[in-house]
Amino acid sequence: MADAVQLAVVSDPEEASVRAAAALAAAARAGGSISLAGSNTPRRSYELLAAEPGIDWSQVHIWFGDERCVPPDDSDSNYRMAEETLISRIDIPAANVHRIRGEDDPDAAAAAYADEIAGVSLDLALLGLGPDGHTASLFPDSPALDVRDRLAVPVVASKPPPRRITLTFPVFERASAVLVLAPGESKADAIAAVLRGPDPHYPASLLPAGRTTILTDTAGAP
Q1: By three-state DSSP, how is residue 125 classified?
Q2: Which residues does residue 152 pair with via DSSP β-bridges, in sequence order?
Q3: What's the DSSP call for residue 135?
Q4: Is the pLDDT of residue 2 over 70?
């Protein structure tokens, strides 16, 4: 169904990483704007993307779906993970990498990022999925789920580190495509919940259904 979240199931986490890297590469080759997910799940995809040929990175803009309120060299920083696995390995102008300043005051950093991303329509937003159904740093029943007038907000997460900054749903709703990378058995229940339809207890279910695909492996398939 065109208005439903789509599910793509592959054999194992490596194939899921390959598929995610290929989707990012296609958007990058088109000279698009892409947003990256944090945590460890997309690490392998970024390594593969860095090795993809035929991408003119000077035409690509990289954004981030969320960030922890830590300096960019902190081990918890989403930017640091992307810098180590992707950004440091490609020839991309510094001005094309739009990081969230997690080291700054959260309210000020969120407002600055909202201003920076205003008017941008992402060609591909890569997101993750927590076992609790959160995506980016949009957590179950958070007031951030209802924000329509700001594109980025500070939040207090239900998992460490708690202080974070996240893009809000209006950014993802105007993206051309959203890809949720969620391999592993621990994601199966959350995936099943998302596929049942919109429910604020499972924030990923509030992503734009017609343009969102969940990419998992056989272990994560509900």
Answers
A1: strand
A2: 167
A3: B
A4: no
